[in-house]
Specification:
Strand order of the largest sheet: 16-17-15-14-20-21-22
CATH class of one domain: Alpha Beta
Structural class: alpha/beta
Radius of gyration: 23 Å
Shape: globular
Largest sheet: 7 strands, mixed
Helix content: 25-40%
Number of helices: 16
CATH architecture of one domain: 2-Layer Sandwich
Distance between the termini: 80 Å
Number of strands: 22
CATH superfamily of one domain: ATPase, nucleotide binding domain
């Protein structure tokens, strides 16, 4: 027993973290994004990022289907986890063997269908595919709300309409996050936010809409006799509910070295939209967030139902089940990154040693020197089809009139504007519905260069845009926070947990829209909307 007068040996912050890792008092978040798989380890209060790991991967375009192989899923997860473990060793000279909680997140929507033997029936169809037009149109009409092309139910219905042989053998279908979680835990569950991108959710029950389940079953009864979609969908769970534990098989899948032990609880798997909302503390009404990566989307928490359905707007939920209007664009910053690669290569052959971050920094800063309307230049970032713009396929373009001003500054401003172009079309529809925002939060790698993409987004949305310190960690940190929330869900709802625990002392840099940027982007958007006819012709001709 220690006497109160006995001097205590101080434990420094580094040792406290090391002990927390050894004792499994940390939370691990893993997110499978479109181009990177990231792992993020946070401390007990979820506010401090202790270590990170990542692995780059890329989707494949096979037989006109955007896909990833399941082998690449697991090799990529193992590489990202190994990279995180290496970072832990470098920082703290210890290897984690267990965690307080784990969370899995991934790109939403898409279609992974399995038979009674848990075998994949068709290649994974990602959110990027736009081949579900007839199914999405019929479901939107029958349901009385917008069913986007990328939703899982649209993929299933299209397979039924196309009489695909695998339909008769389906016993389960899910998203990428749901699939990974299932393999790690044995549980076929999904967080309500991710589930809302599979099939419409009734926010009063936090479950699939029972009336629309009946509508769907009746609609496909003749083509797919005996199919009951409720039997095929994963179980829905809100944030804070335990969703299983890491099995021995799951631990081996994540860490083939055998160091990771079984038994860690997992939170419900979520989509990247939900983790983005958590990462930006935007789960309350009149708040919203923009997530920018390979795709770009905005999530706006609604105070009231929308007056009518709009093809530009998806109705989804927060990870807690509250209704959200989502503006989802298939194309985000990939074309911008490609151009940065071109300029980086030019620097290299000119004999300049410039790393990738420095290339982006220089080009983004130059964009601020451009004219407010990008000097009359017009850029489209459409590598894939863009439903909001009415495009089944994408053709990246640079278009200008003879009297436009082609400078590097205007070119880069046009490229940054193009990232926000389709998003702004959808947000204009939301504004016409009378939806008001107090603030938009933003996250994603594009915001790492302080004050550039953020400022131009504020101009594009004509609303204040806030960026937090964890903006570049994004959804991997967000799902780590949701995993950590498992320990507090009995005390606080998700909004209170984020506000009182995670973001109580968080720093946000907020930029208000500048009048010149607002007017300049508006002029750009007018050209952008008119020029979509050029995009449509390019798709036909090329």
């Amino acid at each position: 027993m220690t006497d109160s007068t006995t001097p205590q040996t101080p434990v420094d912050a580094h040792d406290r973290v090391r002990m927390a890792i050894v004792e499994g008092r940390t939370s691990l978040g893993i997110e499978l994004g479109s181009t990177r798989i990231k792992a993020c380890l946070v401390g007990e209060d979820a506010t401090e990022v202790l270590a990170v790991g990542s692995h780059e991967w890329e989707n494949l375009f096979v037989d006109r289907v955007w896909t990833y192989s399941l082998d690449d899923v697991w090799s990529g997860l193992q590489a990202a986890y190994a990279d995180l473990v290496a970072d832990v060793r470098r920082r703290y000279d210890v290897q984690p063997q267990r965690f307080g909680a784990i969370g899995v997140s991934a790109m939403m929507h898409g279609y992974l269908a399995f038979d009674a033997n848990d075998e994949l029936l068709a290649p994974f169809r990602t959110w990027r595919n736009t081949s579900t037009g007839p199914a999405a149109a019929e479901l939107s009409e029958r349901f009385g709300l917008n069913i986007p092309l990328r939703w899982s139910i649209a993929h299933l219905h299209q397979a039924i309409l196309d009489d695909e042989p695998h339909v008769r053998d389906i016993r389960f279908f899910t998203t990428l996050a749901g699939y990974v979680h299932w393999r790690l835990t044995g549980r076929k569950v999904l967080g309500v936010g991710d589930a809302s991108g599979m099939f419409p959710i009734d926010s009063t029950t936090n479950d699939y809409d029972a009336r629309l389940i009946e509508v769907f079953d009746g609609l496909v009864a003749e083509r797919a006799p005996g199919l009951h979609v409720s039997e095929l969908l994963p179980e829905v769970l809100p944030a804070g509910r335990q969703a299983g534990e890491l099995t021995a098989e799951g631990a081996a899948l994540l860490d083939p070295t055998g160091a990771l032990q079984r038994g860690t609880p997992l939170c419900p798997p979520e989509g990247d939209a939900g983790t983005g909302m958590v990462a930006t503390n935007s789960v309350a009404p009149r708040t919203g967030n923009v997530s920018a990566g390979t795709s770009i989307f905005a999530m706006v928490v609604l105070e009231r139902p929308l007056e009518q359905a709009h093809h530009e707007l998806d109705l989804v939920t927060t990870p807690a089940g509250d209704p959200v209007a989502m503006v989802h664009c298939n194309n985000g910053a990939s074309e911008l990154a490609a151009w940065a690669g071109v300029f980086g290569r030019f620097a290299a052959i000119a004999g300049l040693e410039v790393d990738t971050d420095a290339v982006f920094e220089a080009l983004f800063r130059e964009a601020l020197e451009g004219e407010a309307d990008a000097g009359g230049l017009l850029a489209y970032n459409h590598l894939a089809g863009e439903p909001i713009a009415g495009l089944a396929e994408g053709r990246p373009l640079i278009v200008r009139t003879p009297d436009s001003r082609l400078t590097l500054a205007n070119f880069m401003r046009a490229q940054l504007y193009s990232v926000y172009g389709t998003l702004a079309l959808g947000m204009r529809v939301l504004a016409d519905e009378g939806v008001e925002l107090d603030r938009m939060y933003a996250h994603g790698g594009i915001f790492r260069t302080a004050g550039v993409a953020q400022r131009l987004l504020a101009g594009a949305l004509d609303a204040p845009v806030a960026v937090g310190e964890t903006a570049s960690e994004g959804g991997a940190w967000g799902i780590a926070v949701l995993a950590s929330y498992l320990g507090s869900a009995d005390e606080l709802d998700l909004g209170a947990y984020l506000g009182e625990r995670v973001f109580a002392n968080a720093g946000f840099d907020t930029v208000d829209p500048g009048a010149e940027d607002v007017a300049g982007f508006s002029a750009f958007l007018d050209r952008y909307r008119a020029g979509l006819a050029v995009e449509a012709v390019a798709v036909e001709a090329l």
